[in-house]
Amino acid sequence: GQNIDQPTEMTATEGAIVQINCTYQTSGFNGLFWYQQHAGEAPTFLSYNVLDGLEEKGRFSSFLSRSKGYSYLLLKELQMKDSASYLCAVSGYNKLIFGAGTRLAVHP
Amino acid sequence: DTEVTQTPKHLVMGMTNKKSLKCEQHMGHRAMYWYKQKAKKPPELMFVYSYEKLSINESVPSRFSPECPNSSLLNLHLHALQPEDSALYLCASSHAGGTGELFFGEGSRLTVL
Asked: Which end of chain B, N or C, is surrounded by fewer C-beta atoms within 10 Å?
């Protein structure tokens, strides 16, 4: 089976840095994805990690430790438009399973 | 073209109706997916098609019937639905093998009366 845990809600200030953690237990692993989803919209791809380490993409970075079953998404220079749900998703056995998501609220 | 197109965007149906949701992609992806998403919940996988064949059915009730007529199209046929089936239905596609990024459509918001 698969179990993916991430915090339900987080708040942060515009211009700050926030880290969203994700822990997982899976019976098969082909990679870990982070998606952003604004209310009422489809998820959009942010990052993908298959090997241990940090992947950086502009203001967003994602880290993976396969031995610890742990990932985080780092958002820098937060903007109001970053207020959204952030979904950690694990790929394995030809399917992508999502965690419950973290609702991030960015305040001025 | 990096789009996944879903129609209709909104659908209201009664419990005795038969309707279909449609999804189309032209990215050459050979894996296509249906997810169901309730408000403030993550997307839940329903079906996976790989090379036009159903490869995963996550124990979805038979009132939902998927169909993949060709490599670009994916349908979800709906019959005798229940009010609790009201949700956002998301279609996605990826390269075959399910190891790459999923591209999502905007979704079809279904309301069952």
From this structure: N
Q: Identity (one letter) of the amino acid at A106? A: V
Paired strand residues for A38: none
Kindly indicate the confidence band of residue B95, based on its pLDDT and cuts at 50, 70 and 90: confident
Between B83 and B2, residue with greater pLDDT: B83
> Looking at residue B99, what is its pLDDT?
61
Q: According to the model, what pLDDT value does residue B97 have?
A: 64
CB B31 within 8 A of CB B48: yes
Residues of A in contact with B34 (CB under 8 A): none
Contact B42 A99 (CB under 8 A): yes
Biggest CA-to-CA distance, chain A: 42
Question: Helix-strand-coil percent breakdown of chain A, rounded to 5?
Answer: 5, 60, 35
pLDDT at A1: 67
Asked whether A11 and A107 are in contact (CB, 8 A), the reply is: yes
Among the partner residues B40, B42, B99, nearest to A30 by beta-carbon distance: B99
- Rounded Cα distance, B74 and B93, in Å: 10
Q: Exposure of B76 by Cβ count < 10 A (0-12 exposed, 13-18 middle, 19+ buried)?
A: buried
Alpha carbons A8 and A43: distance in angstroms, whole number? 17
**Chain-centroid distance, C-alpha A11:** 15
